[in-house]
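Chain A, query sequence.
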Amino acid sequence: SVFRHKDRWYMSYIIFDGTGYETSLAVSDDLLHWEKLGKTLTYSEGRWDDLQKAGYIALQDYKWGGSYEVESFKGRYWFSYLGGKLSGYETDPMSIGMAWIKDPSRPEEWNKLEDPVLTADQPDARYFEKLTLYKSNVIRDPERRFGYPFIMYYNAKTEDGYERITMALSKNMTDWVRYGFEPLIDNGSGISGDPQIAKIGDLYVMFYFGAFYRPGAFDTFAASFDLENWVKWEGADLISPSEPYDSTFAHKPWVIMHEGVVYHYYCAVGDQGRVIALATSSPLRD
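Chain A, predicted structure.
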């Protein structure tokens, strides 16, 4: 996730070293050149999330072309993260945790809540999220249209193996309740995952990636007027494999618009392994 804080750009990104997930921070002045700062979520012992900690910024200004600044709540800057205890690549089961820090620009270990906030074995877990919960995006809804100020969008799967996108609500960032009985985005098989919300005029846009319900992995979107009922885009992919470095997968979006240019960051898998890549709406000089 890419965000703004005190006139600089920051990226929270995930490292997979063969053991599990850790989270790190980078900084940029131009959205093109990034300096690695250090880790913010690392391996531990004796917790529910010992070997999996993949963190994402919460409460960002999600207005299209807006500030992309992050908002504090109760004097803290918040992050949601997917966590798990077992080694390997996204080894089931995994849950969603919350963490916070006083200054999101510092490469320091985030303060993690003791327990996960959403798990697959909670009583209100729905039929499509009984195994693992994945990446989440937490936004503030000023209208409180569901009775809560905070909305979390996330993807989850059950034993059938495919992933759908759903939502949960909170009043305090620490206690979350699920909303609705059916998924918001369901493509029938494969993966629909890693949602990110933007507001373009009166329309809400959910960027997300699809995989394996048709060939490959790619970035696409859905649109909504009410944050609940979403219409999936059926046209051309926003990003799909086109370069040697993303020839296998081009997926997992984070999309912003700054000074008239759309910056579409994504995870690319190809001849350089697994890397972070960028596509823009206009050619840029390096």
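The mean pLDDT is 97. The radius of gyration is 18 Å.
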